[in-house]
UniProtKB/TrEMBL annotation:
Domain of life: Bacteria
Pfam family, one: Cyt_bd_oxida_II
Keywords noted in UniProt: Cell membrane, Electron transport, Heme, Iron, Membrane, Metal-binding, Transmembrane, Transmembrane helix, Transport
Subcellular location(s) of the protein: Cell membrane
Topological type in the membrane: Multi-pass membrane protein
Signal sequence bounds: none
InterPro entries hit by this protein: Cyt-d_oxidase_su2 (IPR003317)
Annotated family: Belongs to the cytochrome ubiquinol oxidase subunit 2 family.
Organism of provenance: Leucobacter muris
The name this protein goes by in its record: Cytochrome d ubiquinol oxidase subunit II
């Protein structure tokens, strides 16, 4: 396998890891106004992700760094073209992180209520905008070649807000919401567990309907793709994972439901990556302007060095993350939330 293809896969794995792990963080944050009947409920919900949410976000940092180092042209074109959308995501992530740390400072009910709103919107906006961005990558973007070399995005933020892109955003939002609700039921006992399961059922139905429409639209859009069979296979596994997670949640098997949602997110993103391959960005202006993996990659020596570093560090990161989840595996209850605690 060529190093350019290998690093396309590595960046994909890092992004998938981010959406699987931080995806349920987003869902937990979105659940606050729906499951939080009082402040103790809301603190219980937040505490389900308290030890891990910042660790989960490091996957995005690593993915961005890998993208910058392995495919600098892709990084530059995408981050300049999606500038406003990415800025909104960054602001939302900052507000969410600050709110986790400051909501419990005891400044009064209004203070806490404001930060709970920031947590909700800071959790809802990123998956929506990420879904819009990835859907547009799969659909193609108005990019052209610069005379001096490189690519430039010719559209605006409104260009991204097309029907297919918005459907992709809605699907990502709903799947993350359901993923987070299942995680809450996996991490809690008592009434909170039951209410999270019931809400996950309702959200899961909406996610299945929207996800089916998005996957079918994606397949029809790429019906002439030389790797259509692989696109269809990934889409089918994503659908099976989402439906299987829904059924497992109905049966009260939260572990299997969480696994099903993780599979759905993984293969939904793989569907998009397979639809892209062998390009990183497909031009809707002229196919000749499309950004290929080879054309946007760093030098061979750079990729070789990065491969050695990744081979050494990735197992350590995965081991540390697995250990963290094992340490904080215990379920939580309302009774475990002392007065005045976070």
């Amino acid at each position: 396998m060529e190093l350019t293809t290998l690093w396309f896969l590595i960046v994909g794995v890092l992004l998938i890891g981010y959406f699987v792990l931080d995806g349920f963080d987003y869902g937990v944050g979105m659940s606050l106004p729906f499951l939080g009947r009082d402040d103790t409920d809301r603190r219980l919900i937040i505490n389900t992700i308290g030890p891990v949410w910042d660790l989960n976000e490091t996957w995005l940092i690593v993915a961005g760094a890998a993208l910058f180092a392995a495919f600098p042209e892709w990084y530059a074109t995408m981050f300049s073209g999606f500038y406003l959308a990415l800025l909104l995501i960054l602001v939302a992530l900052i507000l969410r992180g600050v709110s986790f740390e400051y909501r419990h400072q005891g400044k009064g009910e209004q203070w806490t209520r404001w930060f709970d709103q920031f947590i909700f919107w800071g959790s809802a906006l990123p998956p929506l905008l990420w879904g819009v961005a990835f859907a547009n990558l799969a659909q193609g973007l108005p990019i052209s070649l610069l005379p001096q070399g490189g690519w430039i995005y010719e559209g605006t933020l409104l260009t991204l807000l097309n029907p297919y892109g918005l459907l992709g955003g809605l699907v990502m939002l709903l799947i993350c919401f359901a993923h987070g609700l299942v995680f809450i039921s996996l991490k809690t006992l008592g009434d909170m567990r039951q209410r999270a399961r019931r809400l996950a059922t309702k959200v899961g139905i909406a996610a299945i309907v929207a996800g089916a429409g998005f996957l079918i639209w994606t397949i029809l859009m790429h019906r002439d793709h030389e790797m259509l069979w692989l696109i269809v296979l990934c889409a089918a596994v994503a659908a099976i994972g989402l439906i299987g997670g829904f059924i497992a949640n109905l049966a009260g098997r939260e572990g299997w439901a969480f696994t099903g949602n993780a599979v759905a997110i993984t293969f939904a993103l793989l569907t998009i990556f397979m639809a892209l391959f062998p390009y990183l960005m497909y031009s809707t202006i002229d196919p000749a302007f499309s950004m290929s993996i080879e054309g946007a990659a760093s030098s061979q020596k750079t990729l070789e060095l990065m491969t050695w570093v990744a081979g050494f560090t990735m197992p350590l990161v995965l081991a540390y993350q697995a250990w963290t989840y094992w340490v904080f595996r215990k379920r939580l209850t309302r009774e475990a939330i002392p007065a005045g605690a976070h």
